[in-house]
């Protein structure tokens, strides 16, 4: 889909086919889901048969299914990946989201390719290159500002620009983080991140002075671009992506419905834009994303660098404000709830902050209202009160689980229908019903019947209207019914029901016939040059096909991926736009112009410590980036050596295989 055809796509995540179907029902124009293997979420794979079931449901609404094949691949994995692509194409999958350029070298069917966020798209030059080698859609880096997005849009005319608008934020530029592999042997580029960024660290300066103690300084708040959607549309974004292939059903329903409603408002105000699929949704609930797990919200860098983007106190979900503790007993606590808080239910979860600033929480086995006027409740937690740290009178409470809300979203909570018009006409001994949807697709069915005038014309017309309007559990919602007949005729209700069913089936068949299949974009020939002539290990080249791809596009020096274990000394294990100095108000730029402070603060390295692990933060102030520097742990190398000896594998190395100790 080219930006020349300005369709707006809401792209939702799915851990499995059932969640994907719910995402479609709640308004998604497209869903991305992991395939049987090689998706960047190691525990979120799905068999092809389940993906085919999701495809069938989505295509009825002309929605699309994208499968993630966005890990980096070893040489011995290329053939299994190629076979899997053929299976996915046969199942009707619309596109693959990929990181490894080896996929462009393989003999795969003409399935559309999308560039994953793992390809680190931050510049117009990189985006234009990816368009020119055959990518039809690309996920831009989350760190971009509106002007940077506009600059990319000016250079990319034939590919759709996609942007994350909601969910968890990876602190690193996607694809440029190797901390997990260095410390645990679990590669983020291969779908197995250990989330070292969510750990607490003590931050010290070069002299050993403690700047922050046990703070989650690499942990970010969650992405929320609700207020920036219109600006992102104006900047050139056409696909709006919700993060969350590990998230549960309630999260996907809630977030999808929320952004569906907001994007529909934009579409209504800007008629030159069109929806990315068919139908409109109605809901049994009011979407509230803050009710799902989140670490509070940030719009990150879209409107420039902000100081308050970190979730430094906890990576957990604190919940939404609830009330305050009034009294405690040996087995219970009494608390008031705010006027805007919904009533409590057995099983609700509460949280609070202890005196050390740590988040505590407990489920309430039972609750009861003891004073309606004061909104006073009594709760019995599932732990002894003596074990609940610093839960005392006056402590503010939050609710991080609302059982009533959960029950609403556990049930069917949305209905998606396509408007359709019906027209009944007659001729000699035949009735014909025409069914036309809101997009102009048309189906028809005829009934050969000896037409006899109805004895009661008004009653016959009412019966026809009733029988033809029963669209029930079909995709369609009756918008208009026209009886273009010479007069009301007698016809059995069973015959009219059959006529309706056949016309609706013909309309569905017409929609299926008219649904365009996304096609693979052709690469520009001769091969366009890559924007750089040298690639470091951060380019994640892990197989010879990817190496050959870059060489064919003019790259002269191609290092192997970090997973090849050739970077044994200090290395940038993470490159990030997040700056710990800035977030702790220690950036030299913040001191500029401040009397008595300017010139006293320098961007010297800082040290992070978690247990025995040490990492150094180095600051590159010209591009305003931070590098987290460290070494690969010896136990990771030893385990890799043992694993390779037990089961030989093939991957790209720039240098001869090192001899591990």
TrEMBL record:
Domain Peptidase U32 collagenase residue range list: 397-511
Species of provenance: Pseudaquabacterium rugosum
InterPro entries: Pept_U32_collagenase (IPR020988), Peptidase_U32 (IPR001539), RNA/ubiquinone_mod_enzymes (IPR051454)
Listed name of the protein: U32 family peptidase
PROSITE patterns: PEPTIDASE_U32
A Pfam entry, by short name: Peptidase_U32
């Amino acid at each position: 889909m080219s930006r020349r055809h300005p369709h707006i796509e809401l792209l939702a995540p799915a851990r499995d086919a059932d969640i994907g179907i719910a995402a479609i029902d709640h308004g998604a124009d497209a869903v991305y889901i992991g395939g049987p293997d090689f998706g960047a979420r190691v525990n979120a794979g799905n068999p092809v048969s389940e993906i085919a079931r999701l495809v069938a449901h989505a295509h009825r609404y002309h929605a699309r299914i994208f499968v993630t094949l966005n890990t980096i691949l070893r040489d011995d994995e290329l053939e299994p990946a190629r076979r899997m692509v053929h299976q996915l194409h046969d199942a009707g999958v619309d596109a693959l989201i990929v990181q490894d350029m080896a996929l462009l070298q393989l003999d795969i069917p003409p399935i559309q390719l999308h560039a994953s966020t793992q390809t680190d798209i931050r510049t117009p030059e990189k985006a234009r290159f990816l368009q020119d080698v055959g990518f039809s859609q690309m996920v831009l880096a989350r760190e971009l500002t509106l002007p940077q997005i506009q600059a990319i849009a000016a250079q990319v005319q034939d590919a759709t620009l996609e942007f994350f608008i909601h969910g968890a934020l990876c602190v690193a530029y996607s694809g440029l983080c190797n901390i997990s592999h260095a410390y645990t042997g679990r590669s983020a580029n291969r779908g197995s991140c250990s989330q070292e960024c969510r750990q607490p660290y003590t931050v010290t300066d070069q002299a050993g002075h403690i700047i922050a103690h046990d703070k989650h300084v690499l942990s970010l708040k969650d992405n929320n671009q609700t207020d920036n959607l219109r600006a992102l549309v104006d900047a050139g974004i056409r696909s709006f992506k919700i993060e969350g292939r590990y998230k549960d059903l309630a999260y996907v329903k809630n977030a999808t419905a929320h952004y569906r409603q907001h994007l529909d408002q934009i579409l209504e105000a800007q008629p030159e834009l069109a929806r990315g699929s068919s139908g409109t949704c109605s809901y049994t609930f009011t979407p509230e994303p803050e009710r799902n797990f989140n670490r509070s919200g940030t719009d990150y860098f879209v409107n420039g660098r902000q100081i308050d983007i970190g979730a430094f106190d906890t990576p957990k979900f604190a919940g939404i404000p609830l009330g305050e503790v009034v009294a405690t007993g040996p087995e219970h606590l009494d608390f008031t709830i705010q006027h805007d808080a919904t009533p409590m239910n057995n099983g609700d979860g509460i949280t609070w902050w202890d005196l050390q600033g740590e988040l505590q929480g407990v489920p309430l086995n039972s609750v009861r209202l003891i004073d309606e006027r004061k909104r006073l409740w009594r709760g019995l937690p599932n732990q002894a009160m003596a074990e609940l740290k610093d839960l005392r009178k006056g402590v503010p409470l939050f609710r991080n689980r609302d059982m009533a809300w959960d029950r609403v979203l556990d049930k069917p909570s949305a209905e998606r229908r396509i408007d359709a018009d019906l027209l009944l006409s007659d001729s000699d001994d035949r009735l014909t019903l025409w069914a036309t949807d809101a997009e102009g697709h048309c189906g028809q069915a005829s009934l050969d019947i000896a037409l006899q005038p109805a004895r009661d014309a008004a009653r016959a017309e009412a019966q026809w209207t009733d029988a033809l309007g029963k669209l029930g559990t079909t995709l369609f919602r009756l918008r208009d019914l026209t009886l273009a007949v010479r007069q009301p005729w007698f016809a059995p209700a069973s015959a009219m029901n059959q006529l309706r069913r056949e016309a609706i089936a013909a309309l569905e068949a017409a929609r299926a016939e008219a649904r365009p299949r996304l096609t693979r974009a052709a690469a520009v020939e001769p091969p366009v040059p890559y924007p750089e002539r040298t690639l470091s290990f951060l380019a994640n080249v892990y197989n010879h096909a990817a190496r050959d791809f870059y060489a064919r596009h003019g790259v002269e020096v191609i290092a192997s991926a970090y997973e090849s274990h050739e970077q044994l000394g200090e290395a940038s294990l993470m490159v990030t736009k997040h700056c710990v100095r800035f977030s702790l108000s220690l950036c030299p730029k913040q001191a500029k112009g401040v009397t008595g402070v300017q010139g006293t603060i320098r961007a010297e390295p800082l040290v992070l410590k978690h247990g025995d692990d040490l990492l150094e933060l180095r600051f590159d102030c010209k591009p305003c980036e931070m590098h987290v520097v460290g070494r690969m742990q010896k136990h990771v190398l030893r385990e890799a050596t043992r694993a390779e000896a037990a089961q030989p594998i093939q991957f790209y190395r720039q240098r001869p295989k090192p001899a591990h100790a």
